[in-house]
């Protein structure tokens, strides 16, 4: 009786590659050009930044929202392949306690590059003298074999700009 409770469900992850998209309309830059040294020196992982021309922030990958920081400027996404991706809005913006951000997702939500994650008030960030760059970081680089950004410069939100080949 109740044998079904003893079943072990194996979670299988997709094998990739993982496509990367521009999270905002703006200008794509290498992560090394981001003004925050923690990101620029790749202490958390590799990635890229986008200097936004508007405040609508979309998912840079498909996956599930794994975390939403209380200060609203940082979101985590876990892809079906098992990669962890961080979206960080602005530099030193945690001290603003969420005021220039409105999140449209919560933990557990499924997202695609068509999903609006958050809205940033660019004027409020400028008034607070904060860099408004949107930073995308692959925080699980141990899972990455190759990472390529094929597009830098002007881009539109939801535009494919790179890919990740997974380590086997």
Integer tally of domains = 1
Show unreliable segments.
Answer: 1-12
**N-C termini distance:** 40 Å
CATH superfamily: Glucose Permease (Domain IIA)
- CATH class term: Mainly Beta
Q: How many alpha or pi helices?
A: 2
For the CA atoms, what is the radius of gyration? 17 Å
Order of helices and strands: EEHEEEEEEEEHEEEE
| Overall average pLDDT | 91
Strand proportion, as a percent range, falls in 35-45%
Instruction: State the major sheet.
Output: 8 strands, antiparallel
Q: What is the helix content?
A: under 10%
Q: What class do helices, strands and sheet pairing give?
A: mainly beta
Shape field: globular
Describe the 3D structure.
It is a single chain. By secondary structure, this protein is mainly β. It has one domain (21-166): Glucose Permease (Domain IIA). Helices cover 6% and strands 40% of the residues. It is built from two helices and 14 strands. The protein has an eight-stranded antiparallel sheet, with no helix packed on it. A three-stranded antiparallel sheet has the order 1-14-12, with no helix packed on it. Strands 4-10-8 form a three-stranded antiparallel sheet, with no helix packed on it. Strand 6 and strand 7 (84-89) form a beta hairpin. It is globular and about 45 Å long.
In short:
The chain is mostly beta strands and 168 residues long.
């Amino acid at each position: 009786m109740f044998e079904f409770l003893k079943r072990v469900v194996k979670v299988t992850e997709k094998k990739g590659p993982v496509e990367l998209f521009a999270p905002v309309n703006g200008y794509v830059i290498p992560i090394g050009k981001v003004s925050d040294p923690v990101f620029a020196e790749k202490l958390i992982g590799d990635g890229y930044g986008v200097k936004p021309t508007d405040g609508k922030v979309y998912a840079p990958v498909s996956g599930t929202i794994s975390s939403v920081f209380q200060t609203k400027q940082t979101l985590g996404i876990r892809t079906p392949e098992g990669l962890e991706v961080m979206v960080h809005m602005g530099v030193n913006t945690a001290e603003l306690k969420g005021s220039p951000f409105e999140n449209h997702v919560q933990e557990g939500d499924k997202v695609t590059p068509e999903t609006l994650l958050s809205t940033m008030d660019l004027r409020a960030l400028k008034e607070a003298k904060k860099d408004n760059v949107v930073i995308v970081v692959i925080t699980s680089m141990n899972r990455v074999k190759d990472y390529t950004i094929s597009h830098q410069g002007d881009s539109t939100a939801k535009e494919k700009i790179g890919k990740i080949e997974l380590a086997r």
